[in-house]
Hints:
Layout: H1 3-6, H2 22-38, H3 43-72, E1 74-76, E2 81-83
Antiparallel strand pairs: 1-2
Amino acid sequence: xxxxxASRPPEQVDGDVSELSFEEALSQxxxxxxxxxxxxxxxxxxxxxxxxxxALRRHCEAKLAEAEAKVQAVxxxxxxxxxRDVE
Length: 87
């Protein structure tokens, strides 16, 4: 995320969620939660933020599952820790 995007409200951050890193998606999701908790958005803005937040949450869950699979792929080898392929 660019510095310009980071300073914008979460509902105005454009782009495909799948292109975000876990940290970027989590940061945007936190911003959306704070905005929704603040209750100062219009109903249309709140719905849009909620929809984006849902997409961000799914993306974060997928990234975490991917990371978990990689960690589980670490197996004890003859010489030390090795990685095996994960589907």
